[in-house]
Automatic annotation (TrEMBL):
SUPFAM superfamilies: FAD/NAD(P)-binding domain, FAD/NAD-linked reductases, dimerisation (C-terminal) domain
GO molecular function, one term: oxidoreductase activity, acting on NAD(P)H
The organism of origin for this protein: Cellulomonas humilata
Pfam family, any one: Reductase_C
Names of required cofactors: FAD
Database matches in InterPro entries: FAD-oxidoreductase/Apoptosis, FAD/NAD-bd_sf, FAD/NAD-binding_dom, FAD/NAD-linked_Rdtase_dimer_sf, Reductase_C
Name of the protein in question: FAD-dependent oxidoreductase
Keyword Flavoprotein attached: yes
Domain spans labelled Reductase C-terminal: 322-407
Keyword Flavoprotein part of the UniProt annotation: yes
Length: 408
């Protein structure tokens, strides 16, 4: 009987085994995960779950008995140490070898660490796992002064959660604006204003030079900046991005270019190995280039393509990148890909000052990405605009009286 081994029991791993069973794969399926929790989704960890409004159970991808009832051999607390491509097996931490006919890598990302003196002090934390979120929630309740290092999505969501918990919050950003590299200055300014309006002490163009210990010497007491400023802190949350976990793939000899390089069917340089989720640098037929997308929707949907490839179906993955965030009273969705060529302009339809709008990133008159902020049910229309590659009249694009569906 054939066997598929999936390494990494996060969202992408769990959806891969689900996809295999949905597509009628009747061989053996083994899901190996380093964590001891069954697969769960991470977005609630910096939002509702961190704030205490979402139930823990809601984060899990499947009910506890799902794996047994779908004949999936789920082995938790089982980090895979190496892959043998020639021998077609993997070796886990205890030395057990598990053979495969197809191997799916879904090892996700890990948070980047702050490399300054004092970053190992107690009270300096990262956020990736359910345990991290539990710990952070408890700490927020007991830490009046929180410093968030980094102004990316997770840093800003944690800042919002910390404000909701009643903490004084400083956010330290290296760039002139948070999120500027993803959104450009036009929309990044909106997020900066949102945080300042909610009492966050947002400091841009800052560089952390040291985490300073308190009087006892073991716990954080302050954060020192390169310009000499010192900010008192009871808790420091480091949110400076994540790196794909590609060591296993690289050591096995698979092609890795800051992500496991895969084709549109998610096959790696060894076609019996596939990669999904945060680690996959996949060729995207619509975008015409390889992209690696560190977002929930990608981890949710790519696995169905991987399962299709394994059962012999021809279904390239070409969903447009999509992500979302919730911060204070702002909810937004972003779809599309601005890419290496950037954009010429951002066209706003709606009210930027009141944060109720749809923004379009345009290149040569064509919409390459769109973001709806506190406006809902427009993602399909925005995707249709992007996929059409049509040159859209600027005035009609910005006019809320022209329905999005009438623009094409
Ligand atoms: C706090 C937080 C909030 C987020 N919020 C959003 C959001 O609002 N919107 C959005 O679009 N995205 C969000 N994301 C990103 C999204 O969660 C990720 O893109 C998604 O989790 C990727 O899924 P994955 O399965 O590829 O990887 P992961 O979720 O990282 O799972 C990989 C799993 O593989 C395991 N593993 C690694 N190496 C091995 C090994 N050698 N052997 C066995 N197991 C191994 C890991 O322990 C982990 O459990 C958020 C992420 C975080 C951390």
């Amino acid at each position: 009987m054939s066997q598929v081994v999936v390494v990494g029991a996060g969202l992408a791993g769990a959806k891969t085994v689900e996809g295999l069973r949905e597509r009628g794969y009747d061989g053996r399926v083994v899901l190996l995960g380093a964590e001891t929790e069954r697969p769960y989704e991470r977005p609630p960890l910096s939002k509702g779950y961190l704030q205490g409004s979402d139930e823990r159970e809601g984060a899990f991808v499947h009910p506890p008995d799902w794996y047994a009832t779908h004949d999936v051999d789920l082995r938790l607390g089982t980090p895979v140490a190496s892959i043998d491509l020639g021998g077609r097996d993997v070796v886990d931490g205890s030395g057990t070898r598990t053979g495969w006919d197809h191997l799916v890598l879904a090892t996700g990302s890990e948070p980047r660490r702050l490399d300054v003196p004092g970053s190992g002090l107690e009270g300096v934390v990262h956020l990736r796992t359910l345990d991290d979120s539990d710990r952070l929630r408890a700490l927020l309740g007991a830490a009046p002064r929180v410093v968030v290092v980094g102004g990316g999505w997770i840093g800003l969501e944690v800042a919002a959660a910390a404000r909701a918990a009643g903490c004084a919050v400083s956010v330290l950003v290296r760039d002139p604006l948070p999120l500027a590299r993803v959104l450009g200055p036009e929309l990044a300014t909106m997020f900066a204003e949102l945080h300042r309006a909610n009492g966050v002490d947002l400091r841009t163009r800052t560089d952390v030079s040291e985490i300073v210990a308190d009087g006892a010497g073991t716990h954080v007491g302050a954060v020192a900046l390169a310009d000499g400023t010192v900010i008192d802190a009871d808790l420091v949350v480091v949110g400076i991005g994540a790196a794909p976990r590609v060591d296993l793939a690289r050591s096995a000899g698979l092609r890795v270019e800051s992500g496991v390089v895969v084709d549109a069917h998610l096959r790696a340089s060894d076609p019996h190995v596939l990669a999904v989720g945060d680690i996959a640098r996949a060729h995207h037929p619509f975008l015409g280039t390889h992209v690696r997308v560190e977002h929930w929707a990608n981890a949710l949907h790519q696995p169905s393509t991987a399962a299709a490839t394994i059962v012999g179906a021809d279904e390239p993955y070409d969903r447009l990148p999509y992500f979302f965030t919730d911060q204070f009273d702002l909810g937004m969705e972003y779809v599309g890909y601005v890419g290496a060529h950037g954009y010429d302009e951002v066209v706003v339809r709606g009210d930027l000052a009141n944060r109720e709008l749809v923004a379009f990133w345009r290149r040569a008159g064509r919409v390459v990405a769109g973001m709806n902020v506190n406006v809902w049910d427009v993602v399909d229309d925005v995707q249709a605009l992007i996929r059409s590659r049509a040159v859209i009249d600027r005035d009609r694009l910005s006019d809320p009286d022209v329905p999005l569906g009438d623009l094409l």
